[in-house]
Design brief:
The complex is a heterodimer of chains A (341) and B (94). With 341 residues, chain A is of the alpha/beta class. Helices cover 34% and strands 13% of the residues of chain A. In chain B, the strands form two sheets. In chain B, strands 1, 2, 6, 7 and 8 form a five-stranded antiparallel beta sheet that branches. In chain B, strands 3-4-5 form a three-stranded antiparallel beta sheet, with no helix packed on it. The chains are: A alpha/beta (341), B mainly beta (94).
C-alpha cells in the first residue's frame, strides 16, 4: 500500500473541470486566453443543460469546478449554477476580473460555502495593470477586492499573469495582495487566444524566467495553480504537480459546450466533443483526443535530468509555439535558460 | 470487500478513522484519491479495495472502512494521512 504518482494512473473522471461559462466580458485584456472562443458565434449552454452537466460531474465525483469566462458574473443565471454545484458537494473557484464585485453580489457570495474567488490583477501599480486590462481597471479591481474583505469573504486570491511588463513587480504584487487580505497567485502567460498576438510582446525573457524561478523558490506561500512546473525550483518541489494535468486530471468546457483537454488547448485540433449532447465525463474517459494527449511521452525531453520535475512542461505552450506536442516546453529552465541537462 | 470501521485495540480502546468534511475521497482503480478542498492538494493511495469511505454527504465527516485487520503498512499509511489532515482518529471503547 503506497501513495502513487499521477503519471502512473488513468483516472476515471477529472479531478477538476475548467468551465468557461460565458463569452460575455466587459474588458478586452491583451492576453485573454478565451478571446478566440469569445469571438465565435455559437450559442452558450443554457441553464437546464448546465445543470445536467453539473449532475454528470457530481455523479463522477468531480471535486472542483473552476469557472471562468468571459466574466462569469455577467451571466444572469450564474449564481444559480454556483448554488446548484455547491448543492451537489462540488467545490467551486470563480475567476473574475473583479469589476462586478459590488455590495449586493458580494453579500450573496459571502454566504456561500465551498466557493473560492480569484480576482485578476496584472500589476502592482495602475500603469502596469491598465496597459494590459484597460484604462481605469486597477482602481475598480482593487475596490472589488476590498469589497470582498469588507463582507468577510474568507477565501480569495488576486492573480497576476506574469508577463514581460509586470515580471519586475512580483514582489510588490505579493505585498499588495497581503495589504488587500488576499492570497497572492501568479500564473503563466501562454500563447492561447489573444495571447497568440501578444506573445512576442509579453513572453518572459530568459533572465526574467530565471528570476521568476528563483522568486518562486524563495516565496513558497505564493500560489501558482501549478502553472510553473516547467520552472520548478528546489524550494517548490513538493508543493504541486510535476506534470501537465490536461486530459489526465482536468478538462475544459467552452461557453458553447466544446470539450477540450485544457482551457489553454482550445484549438480545433483538440476539440474532443460537444457538451450540448454528450457527457463531459464520458469524453474524458473515451475520447481519442484525450487518449492521444495522455499517451504522448515527450521523447524530446525524456532524457533530461529535470524530466521528473516537469515531464516536458506545458503542451499548450509547446503546441502553439512549435505546432508539435513532442517539442517540449520552450520556456523550461534547461531549454530556454541554457542550463545543462 | 470492506466490512469494518474500527481497527486496533490499545488498552481497551478502539480507533475509528474519520474523513473530515473538507476532504473529498473517491474510488479509483488503484485505490483511493483524496482531495483536500482547503489546499486543493491531491493524495493518491494505492490500496485496491482494502480501504473505502462510508456513506454520507460529501460535505459531512465520513468513516474510513477496512477490509481486514490492521497491518503495519496500513498503520503507517493512516499516520501519514492524519499528518496531512486527511483523516482524524477518534478513540472509543468497545
Amino acid at each position: 500500500m503506497r501513495r502513487v504518482a499521477l503519471a502512473d494512473e488513468a483516472l476515471r473522471a477529472p479531478v477538476n473541470v475548467t468551465w468557461e461559462i460565458t463569452k460575455a466580458c466587459n474588458l478586452s485584456c491583451r492576453h485573454c486566453l478565451s478571446a478566440t472562443l469569445r469571438s465565435q458565434g455559437r450559442d452558450e449552454l443554457g441553464l437546464a443543460r448546465c445543470r445536467e452537466i453539473v449532475d454528470d460531474l457530481a455523479a463522477a465525483d468531480v471535486f472542483q469546478i473552476n469557472f471562468g469566462g468571459g466574466e462569469p458574473f455577467l451571466r444572469a443565471d450564474f449564481l444559480d449554477i454556483l448554488d446548484y454545484a455547491h448543492g451537489h458537494g462540488i467545490t467551486t473557484c470563480v475567476s473574475t476580473n473583479g469589476t462586478m464585485l459590488h455590495d449586493g453580489l458580494v453579500a450573496r457570495l459571502a454566504a456561500m460555502d465551498g466557493l473560492y474567488l480569484q480576482v485578476s490583477l496584472d500589476g502592482a501599480v495602475p500603469e502596469t495593470n491598465d496597459a494590459i486590462r484597460g484604462a481605469g481597471t486597477f482602481g475598480r479591481i482593487v475596490a472589488g477586492v476590498e469589497c470582498l474583505r469588507s463582507h468577510g469573504v474568507e477565501e480569495y486570491s488576486v492573480n497576476m499573469v506574469v508577463t514581460r511588463v509586470n515580471a519586475g513587480e512580483v514582489g510588490e504584487f505579493a505585498a499588495l495582495a497581503a495589504r488587500l487580505g488576499a492570497k497572492a497567485r501568479l500564473s503563466r502567460f501562454r500563447p492561447s487566444g489573444a495571447g497568440c498576438e501578444s506573445w512576442d510582446d509579453y513572453r518572459l525573457t530568459r533572465t526574467q524566467l530565471r528570476e521568476l524561478s528563483a522568486f518562486l523558490g524563495e516565496h513558497t506561500s505564493i500560489l501558482t495553480g501549478d502553472s510553473f512546473f516547467s520552472l520548478t525550483p528546489e524550494g517548490r518541489r513538493r508543493l504541486g504537480l510535476t506534470m501537465c494535468g490536461a486530459a489526465r486530471m482536468t478538462m475544459a468546457i467552452a461557453p458553447d459546450g466544446g470539450l477540450y483537454p485544457c482551457a489553454f488547448l482550445t484549438d480545433p485540433a483538440f476539440r474532443a466533443g460537444d457538451a450540448t449532447h454528450v457527457s463531459p465525463v464520458a469524453v474524458f474517459r473515451d475520447s481519442d483526443v484525450f487518449a492521444r494527449l495522455r499517451a504522448s511521452d515527450n521523447a524530446t525531453c525524456s532524457a533530461c535530468s529535470r524530466f521528473s520535475l516537469c515531464h516536458g512542461g506545458c503542451p499548450a505552450v509547446a503546441y502553439f509555439v512549435t505546432r508539435s506536442l513532442d517539442a517540449g516546453d520552450p520556456e523550461c529552465l534547461v531549454a530556454a535558460l541554457g542550463e545543462s541537462a | 470487500m470492506t466490512t469494518r470501521s474500527i481497527i486496533g485495540t490499545d488498552a481497551g480502546l478502539s480507533v475509528r478513522y474519520l474523513v473530515p468534511g473538507a476532504v473529498r475521497v473517491r474510488r479509483e482503480d488503484f485505490g483511493l484519491l483524496f482531495y483536500d478542498s482547503r489546499s486543493t492538494h491531491l493524495t493518491f493511495v494505492r490500496c485496491g479495495e482494502s480501504l473505502a469511505v462510508g456513506p454520507g454527504a460529501p460535505s459531512e465527516e465520513r468513516e474510513l472502512l477496512f477490509a481486514r485487520p490492521c497491518h503495519p503498512a496500513v498503520a503507517r499509511l493512516l499516520d501519514a494521512l492524519q499528518a496531512k489532515g486527511l483523516l482524524r482518529a477518534s478513540r472509543c471503547t468497545g
